[in-house]
């Protein structure tokens, strides 16, 4: 039995058809939420060369130029003899200050090169932390893709469901119109009463109210579909089942989820990065060493025209921390607590994954059982309605009995449509909960690959990636 029979029966068949695969491909390629997460991952890739910069030398070139003015004055001599034989105290020439003026254009240039030698393994751990963050970012992107694909599949099925329900309620209005007209005709020949006519009109009014409510839900579903896919929902086609790629058992689904779900894997990388943060903080307790080489050329030095200097130096420096007021130890303790928190998040994500898989699996199993029961209910309600109409014609049943049978059939059909939608959506939810709702598993073409951008920013790096990006550094 096709899981989308009624959805297909009431879906519009005109215009350009849209399939579930096409909708998922559109959302995967164009959804802004996925796009912004891809941009965030590309920005995160830059953390790797930034971290590796700690191993590379720093080169700084300097230059300066300007204009200087210097006025230098010597104080008058006291106790010196006047050349004219006059008492020095009365000699005005000795009392006048003697000064000199200097104008120059000081300028110079230089260059310094600083090469770190040892930084307490800070750069090494920075690189490893950056890689953990990048690989964790890839898993976060995969989680966002999964959430978007699941939301798109849900929106697609919601539109199909609401279209089918609107179709059912439209047909119900048509049937009730005929019923009301028939009741009025029976009144004219004395086979029905005004109460029967009032019941028919009330049922018709309620059917119209339910129709407009269903129309509102359909418009809301179509708005959600437009938000996720980027185009209007028109002529949606029946859905190809994904049950063939589901895990065979609940235990198998849970096992896959614990191994592959992006939320768990990203949490492992986050715990990995937090452990490296502890080592980065501990590097403040280690000595550091480096070499600095510099050359400088100065012209018109100290405001003296023609005065020049040239210096060149190579200096090695070792810094040994002795006491920092306890702030480094507080930072280390803080980093260790955050690492412990990150490990607890891993356990939290594992528990959440188990619950999500079990919930989705139960909904899927229940929906399959509901489809069988609602199929039986629809058949029984159809038989009962035909019988009720015949007995009403014979005067053995009232108009109220016929209206009740008509409503029972409508409710059974609506329940059948809802169960079909739940079966399809819960199958996609199982894939998402087990970490398998990916572009590859769904056969979406033109899949996004984050590796080329990472390799591009890594050009010119020292060495290769320090570890396998497909596995967390540790297992918690």
Describe this structure in words.
- This protein is α+β, with helices and mostly antiparallel strands.
- The protein has helices spanning 5-10, 20-30, 32-45, 47-52, 92-95, 122-188, 194-229, 250-260, 262-282, 327-393, 399-433, 451-457; strands at residues 58-65, 68-74, 98-104, 107-118, 288-299, 308-319.
- It has a 4-stranded antiparallel sheet, with no helix packed on it. It has a two-stranded antiparallel sheet with strand order 2-3.
- Strand 5 and strand 6 (308-319) form a beta hairpin.
- Helix 2 packs across helix 6 (122-188), helix 6 runs antiparallel to helix 7 and helix 10 runs antiparallel to helix 11.
- The radius of gyration is 41 Å and the shape is elongated.
- The two termini are 45 Å apart.
Ordered list of secondary-structure elements with their pairings:
Layout lengths: L4 H6 L9 H11 L1 H14 L1 H6 L5 E8 L2 E7 L17 H4 L2 E7 L2 E12 L3 H67 L5 H36 L20 H11 L1 H21 L5 E12 L8 E12 L7 H67 L5 H35 L17 H7 L19
Antiparallel strand pairs: 1-4, 2-3, 4-5, 5-6
Helix pairs in contact: 2-6, 3-6, 6-7, 6-9, 6-11, 8-10, 9-10, 10-11
Compute the CA-based radius of gyration. Answer: 41 Å
Low-confidence sequence ranges:
1-6, 8-15, 462-467, 472-476
The structure class reads alpha+beta
Shape: elongated
User: Beta-strand level of the residues, as a percent range?
Assistant: 5-15%
Q: What is the β-strand count? A: 6
Distance between the termini: 45 Å
Please outline the major beta sheet: 4 strands, antiparallel
Number of helices: 12
One letter per element, helices H and strands E, the order comes to HHHHEEHEEHHHHEEHHH
Relative helix content: 55-70%
* pLDDT averaged residue by residue: 87
How do the strands of the widest beta sheet line up side by side?
Answer: 1-4-5-6
């Amino acid at each position: 039995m096709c899981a989308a029979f009624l959805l297909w029966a009431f879906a519009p068949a005109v215009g350009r058809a849209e399939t579930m695969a096409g909708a998922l491909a559109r959302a995967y390629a164009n959804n802004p939420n996925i796009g912004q997460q891809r941009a965030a991952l590309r920005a995160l890739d830059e953390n790797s060369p930034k971290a590796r910069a700690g191993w590379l030398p720093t080169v700084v070139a300097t230059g300066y130029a300007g204009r200087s003015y210097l006025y230098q004055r010597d104080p008058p001599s006291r106790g010196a003899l006047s050349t004219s034989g006059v008492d020095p105290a009365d000699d005005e020439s000795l009392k006048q200050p003697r000064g000199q003026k200097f104008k120059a254009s000081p300028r110079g240039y230089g260059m310094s090169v600083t090469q770190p030698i040892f930084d307490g393994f800070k750069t090494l751990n920075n690189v490893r932390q950056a890689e953990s963050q990048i690989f964790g970012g890839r898993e976060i992107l995969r989680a966002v893709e999964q959430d978007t694909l699941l939301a798109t599949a849900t929106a697609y099925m919601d539109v199909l469901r609401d279209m089918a329900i609107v179709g059912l309620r439209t047909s119900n209005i048509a049937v009730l119109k005929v019923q009301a007209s028939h009741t009025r005709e029976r009144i004219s020949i004395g086979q029905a009463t005004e109460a029967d006519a009032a019941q028919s009109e009330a049922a018709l009014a309620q059917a119209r109210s339910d129709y407009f409510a269903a129309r509102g839900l359909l418009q809301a579903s179509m708005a959600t579909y437009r938000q996720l896919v980027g185009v209007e929902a028109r002529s949606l086609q029946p859905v190809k089942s994904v049950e063939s790629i589901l895990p065979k058992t609940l235990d198998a689904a849970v096992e896959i989820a614990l191994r592959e779900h992006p939320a768990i894997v990203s949490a492992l990388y986050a715990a990995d990065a937090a452990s490296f943060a502890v080592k980065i903080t501990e590097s403040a307790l280690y000595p550091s060493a480096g070499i600095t080489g510099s050359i400088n050329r100065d012209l018109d030095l100290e405001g003296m025209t023609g005065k020049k200097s040239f210096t060149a130096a190579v200096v090695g420096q070792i810094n040994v921390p002795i006491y920092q007021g306890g702030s480094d130890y507080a930072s280390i303790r803080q980093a260790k607590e955050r690492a412990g928190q990150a490990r607890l998040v891993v356990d939290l994500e594992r528990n959440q994954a188990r619950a999500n898989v079990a919930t989705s699996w139960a909904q899927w199993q229940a929906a399959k059982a509901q489809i069988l029961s609602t199929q039986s209910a629809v058949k029984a309600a159809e038989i009962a309605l035909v019988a009720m109409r015949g007995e009403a014609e014979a005067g053995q049943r009232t108009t109220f009995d016929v209206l009740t049978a008509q409503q029972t059939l409508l409710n059974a059909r609506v329940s059948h449509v809802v169960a079909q939608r739940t079966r399809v959506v819960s199958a996609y939810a199982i894939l998402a909960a087990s970490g398998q709702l990916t572009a590859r598993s769904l056969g979406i073409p033109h899949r996004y690959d984050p590796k080329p951008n990472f390799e591009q920013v890594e050009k010119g790096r020292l060495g290769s990636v320090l570890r396998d990006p497909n596995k967390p550094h540790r297992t918690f």
